[in-house]
Task: structure prediction
Amino acid sequence: MRNLITDVPGLLVGNAQDERAATGVTVAVFDATVAASAVTPGGAPGDRGVTLLEPEMTRGGIDAVVLSGGSVYGLDAAGGVTAVLARQGKGMQFGGLIVPVAVQAILFDLMNGGEKDWLRQPVDKPPPYWNLGRDATLAVGESFALGTAGAGFGATTAMLKGGLGSASAVTLHGFIVGALVAVNAVGSAIIGDGPHFWAGAYERGSEFGGLGWPARVPEAALALRFKGQPKQATATTIGLVATDAALSKAECKRLAIMANDGLSKALRPVHAPTDGDTVFAAATGTAGPGGDPPILTELGTVAADCLARAVARGVYEATALACNNLFPDWRTRFGVGR
Amino acid sequence: MRNLITDVPGLLVGNAQDERAATGVTVAVFDATVAASAVTPGGAPGDRGVTLLEPEMTRGGIDAVVLSGGSVYGLDAAGGVTAVLARQGKGMQFGGLIVPVAVQAILFDLMNGGEKDWLRQPVDKPPPYWNLGRDATLAVGESFALGTAGAGFGATTAMLKGGLGSASAVTLHGFIVGALVAVNAVGSAIIGDGPHFWAGAYERGSEFGGLGWPARVPEAALALRFKGQPKQATATTIGLVATDAALSKAECKRLAIMANDGLSKALRPVHAPTDGDTVFAAATGTAGPGGDPPILTELGTVAADCLARAVARGVYEATALACNNLFPDWRTRFGVGR
Result:
């Protein structure tokens, strides 16, 4: 086990980033079309293809989940992903055609200090996201970078640099569950001024520093810390949980609803009006049926824990951006080495 | 009055098409950011940015609605639209940045006989939709072509060539309402073998032939006619209704729900599992409040009528594709000249 979402068999992840623009794309590509659904608890979402994931919709499966920076401009990324998938022959075969389905959510990192050249010449110099989506898909593998990487490259939180996180676990029934998340929350992943993480209770080993929870949370630490100023308004946490259990689309929706509880446990505040928080859930199905309520209860609980852990790992693994000193990284801020 | 959606002040429409690929894009651009919402009654939708239009979401307004061919590949179109809007300074001003919101729905015209070169080389020769979105936005005006044009260029219905339609009306309270639709339905817009349109009752003048309804519909005409074969599976009807009334996002959702009744009246079958039917509703707000229930009832009823008429006009105005003789156009089929 790598403690990555790629511990779920049949799923690879790739990153691509534009370091000068301080933004990037992360894609999870499935070996075969899988059942999936999503929830959108954030107040300001941006997405592509998500309506199709509602249980009453016909199409059963997806081929990739795309997480991207760039706000509305970033929604081009799924186009580049789709192009590579089509060339690779991935997707629904339909009358001799290939129709890959790459669903996407974006986060807002337009004001993080990176050089967003396309904002000056958006027509003659198009946004980089179609190409970043293409490159992330060409880069997929079992290993991938966390922290300041992919969709988490330009991400920030209320107090610290944000980033890309991942985690995995095995349920009592033997199903593998993994989470992938780009943490760019309005809120904070740390308690008060830190260094403890809200997700501390769920930590495995020392995957995000091994500090656990403080015995007591002082009242001052409950004072709200969030990005309230326009110049800080780089918001949204977007993620994916996956399992090797076999689930219907409706059961994937239930898994997404429960997995989202992981964001509730790991970030404060979360699901704010200016967050576009979106959680996808996908089931590769190779390990047998997981939809019975007790089994799905376990899958959902473990998925929530994994997503909470992934949030903390995304912040823990991050490195501050050279172009923005407002958001130090956790290790520098708390004097812990790598 | 032009009997087009552009009779609503503050709204322009542009088309762009790739004739060889037999596909295209239609965009409605608003002078200023407007309230909007949407419904997705079809079973296989493809869209971009639509989750944001739910009433519980924060962002109040949009700058453009994009209708496109190309299925999942077509979802790049909103990127080209967004780029032009950004260059023109349209969109929410946010910390010195421009964030235009272009929402989109697609229809499936991949198997209509056009040369979809990008399906052979999707990475090296990207799909044309980003550029078509850009070009449609650069082409907006008060007048625009109907029938085999824009998003309706490659569209078909169960019996006949489909196309792009539009219509407008004034309510008793003096509000202007308009509809725009790309008709690519699984079902049929004509009763039985025709030539009458299901929408015949709502016709104004002779806007789609002036034939009205048949006095009696023979039982045989109720036999289902729909695209059931994969080779015919070019489905989905997508549209927009707009008004100059001032409506909240929640009231726009209500307007979209009622406007969708126009599809119910104009197409049989409709909202099928392989249709991705999506109806947007937008309120420019220049003519005063329209949200009181009796006024909104009138707006919704007139919007439904306009959308039904627009469907019939889209089919009536269409010209058959040279690359596909399976779908004759209405005028040729019924021997009526132009």
